[in-house]
Structures are given as C-alpha cells and as structure tokens.
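We modelled the chain as a single entity of 231 amino acids. Its sequence is:
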Amino acid sequence: MGSGSACTIVTLLLVVRSDHARRSHGRQKPCPCRDPHRMTSQSYHRTMVAPRSVRLLLPLLGIAALSAGVAGSARAGGDSEPRTTAADHRAQGGAAQPQTTDSRRRRPGCGRFCRQAGGFGAPPEDQPQPVRIPRQRVRVADDWIFAVRATCRLTKTCIGAIIVAGRVSYGRADLRIPAGATRRVLVGVPARGRRYLRRHGRDRKGFATVPLTYDDAPVSISSTLTILAPR
C-alpha cells in the first residue's frame, strides 16, 4: 500500500473520530424525570446519525484501499520487469556463444569431381592454361582456410577443382570462375597440412593444379605459392 493512500485513510478515520467526539461532548445527561424508554434527539443522533456517517465513509475507505492495492501491484510489476529483462539478456547472452561459432566461414566444398581429380600433368606448350594462378604469398586464416587468386582465361565459365600441395597436401576445393574474371578461391587445410604449418610456420614450395570438367581443357599449374601459417 502506498504512503499517499495510507495518509488518506488515516485522515478519514480522524475526521470521523473528531466528529463523533464533538457530538458526544455537547450531549447532556438525561433528566431522571423523563421516560428512560423514550429516545431523545441527542440519543437518536448518537445511535443513528453518527453510525450512518461511518457507514457512508466505509465505501470511501474501501475505494482508497483498493486504489492503494492496485498502485502497489503496478509498482511491484514495474520493479520485477527489469529482473525479467536481465534474465532474458542473460539467456540471450548464453545462447549467443554458439552463434559466434556458427558465424565462421563455411568450409569450402569439394564435390565428386573434386574428390576424384588427379590434377597433375603439364599442358601442351602451344596451348595456354585455362586458369592462370600467378606467384603469390598465401596466408592461412585462424579457421584454417586460405584463398588463392586465380583468373579464368576461357570464353566460358571455368568449372573444376583446385588442388594445393607442397611439402604436404594443403587441401582441395571446388572451383567456379566466370569467363575472363579473377576470383579468390577458398581452400580448407587438412590435418596434416595444419601440423606441418604449426611446426615449420611456412612452406615455400607450394603450388596449385586446376583440372576442369571439360574433356578438351588441359590441367592448369600455378606458379610458386608461399603458404604461411596463421598469425
């Protein structure tokens, strides 16, 4: 119950009490010569009028008490709202940790052709390589994925696979580059390549081969790739 409602109730009670005391103070003792069974006007006022005023004030007291209860409930609800919100934030904070893991880059795919591709063999001297991969330094990211810059030289989309090796195998992935475009092709490092890079930090003998799905397309071989471990 709020302090304002309590003061209202106390004020009403004091008004009733003072009114009753004032009316009682002015009454006189009944004359013994009168009939004791007859009710005087003062007795009637004390017996009927004063209790009636009290009965009229009772609904007001009930309304004040009800208003105080509603106000108290509203304040209690308002006080409990931040606690609920904090609990929700904690729950969301607990559920947010897996989202950090899910937000990492998806591992590069390697379909059926990618898994079965051999990828070795030089192209004929009189025919340019369909996919050009220049000499470059490749830094492996913290999620053990690196990107190789490659250019499709064909008049149609280059579709195939990229296979990266060196001292050990550094993985393979699907390749799809529009005609005449240059793209960064993502490759995921397997366990053996991770162990080598953790131990040695780099591999200066890396290279990539790109077999395409077209029967008449030769295998492309890159220039030297320097593969660096994550920072």
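As a brief sanity check on the tokenised model: Residues 54 and 199 are 94 Å apart (CA to CA). The radius of gyration is 46 Å.
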